[in-house]
Amino acid sequence: MSIAHFLKHTDWDIEWAYDPDIPAVSVGEGTTLVTPHTLLKNLGWNWLDIKDLGFTPKTGIYKENWGGCNKYTHSFPLGNTGMHFNAVGFQDKVFNTLKDSNRITLIEENLTGYENLDTNFVMVCSGSPKKSDDFNYHDEIPVNAAYVTQCFWDNPRFTDTLTIARPYGWVFAIPLKNRCSIGYLYNKNINNLEEIKKDVLNVFNDLDLEPSDVTNSINFNNYSRKVNYTGKVVYNGNASFFLEPLEATSLSTAEKVYRYAFDMWYNQLTCHRANEKFNAEIKDVKAMICLHYMAGSIFNTPFWCSAKEKANIYIKDLFSNNDYWCHNLTQSLNPKNLDDVEIGSWNRWSYRYNVDKLGLTKKVEEYSKCLT
Q1: Does position 27 have pLDDT exceeding 80, yes or no?
Q2: 18 and 150 share a domain?
């Protein structure tokens, strides 16, 4: 996706280095509203170009068993959709679309020593790094493991991404053309995989889905790089950050990373300011995720007690520190301010709707009294 942007908006020659023996990691199969516009703008794609990717339109996010009203749909604006697609197929299609450009040189090698490479600029998209002091770890987000099962069907039965709170975490359901991907997000330090496998049977039953033996168990950290921009070198994708997929923000955040890189490399943004904007984006996404956990769920379990407490402390601290995100969030509660102003990856209407449906309006109003 980064290469597509720089091919479109520069005249630069690009060396694309990758190790063919290390497969790309599939990170999520749903998007926000940003990605379809990006694919049109940078690749010239239309709906026919993605029909072979198991594509279905994503019309909103359905949320069940969370705090507040229990069931609601954060529906996208009329005329706007996100996407559900096969992640592996998507990666292959983008690669095959770009690789034959006369401005691209493919290098089948796993490069290191980025600052010393003989090139003007480097963007590193090398996957999940080892744990180190180079990263901030976001333990306010309470999930660190996932159990994913593919359920095959003849036709999709819904067009929203489903996010269903469960006793040990929450479950996503992503409807593709020929299968539904069910992922149970949980905390491996509180619950074990056997508990997850047993509880997810309730989701299969509720959705009338037949689980297959195509499963995957994943452990992960929630993290972001402390210094994402050094001037010459920029990190993106999992080499830069990973925050759990509750709001499907990975691709839209990655897009902002390469846009800030573009501005920095064209001397329209300082390196310091690029890092500031990156850290602000990570904070905004994390805060939106934590709003959901602060609302809790219908379950009174060790996972939810811990998740709710951690999230409440984090959001309350943001208000106590007079964070600008909190001012924007509070503004969204005023009907006169429901315009297209973005707070991170969401506009004020989306924030107001989620805060209301999660039953957090009074708490946000209470916390906002400490803002100056």
Answers
A1: no
A2: yes
Distance CA 266, CA 261 (A): 8
Q: How many domains does the chain have?
A: 2
Clarify whether residues 172 and 283 are in a common domain: no
Q: In terms of domains, do 104 and 24 share one?
A: yes
| Beta-sheet strands, E only, within the chain | 14-18, 56-58, 60-64, 71-75, 82-84, 104-108, 122-124, 135-137, 145-152, 161-166, 169-175, 179-186, 211-219, 223-225, 233-235, 241-242, 342-343, 346-347
Residue 69's pLDDT is 84
**Last residue of some domain: 205, 240, 265?**
265
Least Cα distance to 217 among 249, 188, 240, 260 occurs for: 188
**How far is residue 187's CA from residue 301's CA, in Å, rounded to a whole number?**
12
pLDDT tens digits, 247-265: 999 999 999 999 999 999 9
- Residue 223, phi-psi category: left (phi > 0), alpha (psi -120 to 50), beta (remainder): beta
Structural domain for 67, as ranges = 2-265
